[in-house]
Each structure stands twice: as C-alpha cells, then as structure tokens.
Amino acid sequence: MARNPIFAIIWLVLLFFLAWPIAAACAGPFEACFHFIKDITNFLEKLITWPRDCGRAIGDCSTRCPTPF
C-alpha cells in the first residue's frame, strides 16, 4: 500500500487545531486543582499508548506481551 503525504498533513492539522486544544482544555486547568484527575489522565494515557507498544512488540518480534497497566 502506498503512503500518501496528504494524509500526514491532514492528521497534523487535526492534531494542532483539534486534539491538542481539546486535551489542554480538559486536563490543563483541572489537573492542577484536583489531584484525582491526574490519576485518571495517567490511566487513560496508559490505555491510549498500549496499541503503540503492541505495534512496537510486533515490529521487534518480542516474546514479551506489553500490558496496558
């Protein structure tokens, strides 16, 4: 399958103008005020980055299964 650089530009634009502002609005002011929100965001980060770790294990042909926790 060929790679299309247009999609990379589209995802980059979405990251800068949609994903980061939403994440900053949700986590930024509340995480400093309420300590339990930091635990929640850390838990969600582990769940979100788990597919990346699985992909890395597949690429490395690792025998260890990455866990999300």
What is the secondary structure topology, with strand pairs?
Blueprint: H1 5-33, H2 35-60
Tell me what the structure shows.
By secondary structure, this protein is mainly alpha-helical. 80% of the residues lie in helices and 0% in strands. The chain has two helices and no strands. It has helices at residues 5-33, 35-60. Helix 1 packs antiparallel against helix 2 (35-60). The chain is flat and about 45 Å long. The mean pLDDT is 78.
Point out poorly predicted stretches.
Answer: none
Q: Average pLDDT across residues? A: 78
Number of domains: 2
| Distance linking N and C termini | 33 Å
Q: Beta-strand percentage?
A: under 5%
Order of helices and strands: HH
Number of continuous helical runs: 2
Structural class: mainly alpha
Helical percent range? over 70%
Q: What about the largest sheet?
A: none
Counted beta strands? 0
Shape label: flat
Q: State Rg.
A: 16 Å
Keywords: Signal
Signal peptide: 1-27
